[in-house]
Design a protein that fits this description.
Elements lengths: L1 E8 L6 E6 L4 E5 L8 H14 L6 E5 L5 E6 L3 H15 L3
Parallel strand pairs: 1-3
Antiparallel strand pairs: 1-5, 2-3, 4-5
C-alpha cells in the first residue's frame, strides 16, 4: 500500500495528473467534475489510477474527503510498488 498526498483542482477544463503543490509536495490532480456530491472524489481516483496504469478499484481516498488536499491509498503488489513509486515521483516533477 502506497499513500499519496494529492491536491485536487475540481472543475478543470481537462483532466491531468502532474506537478506539485506546497511543501511537502502534494501531487496535483485536475478533474473535470465539480466538487458536488462526491463527484470530484470519484474522478480523482479514476484519473489517478489511469495515470498510474492501475485499476480504479485499487485507489481509495482515505482522508480529506471534503477538502482539496487528500490522502489516497494505492493498493499495489510488492513487485509493482517500486514502479508505481517511481511514476509518482516522475508525475510530481511534471510541469
Amino acid at each position: 500500500m502506497i499513500r499519496i498526498t494529492v491536491r485536487v483542482k475540481p472543475g478543470a477544463s481537462r483532466e491531468f495528473v502532474g506537478g506539485s503543490y506546497g511543501d511537502p509536495p502534494a501531487l496535483i490532480v485536475s478533474v473535470n467534475a465539480q466538487a458536488v456530491d462526491g463527484k470530484a472524489n470519484d474522478s480523482v481516483t479514476s484519473v489517478l489510477a489511469t495515470a498510474l496504469g492501475i485499476k480504479s478499484r485499487d485507489c481509495h481516498i482515505v482522508a480529506g474527503h471534503t477538502g482539496r488536499t487528500k490522502i489516497v491509498a494505492v493498493s499495489v503488489s510488492d513487485e509493482n510498488s517500486e514502479r508505481i513509486s517511481q511514476q509518482i515521483q516522475d508525475l510530481l516533477h511534471l510541469r
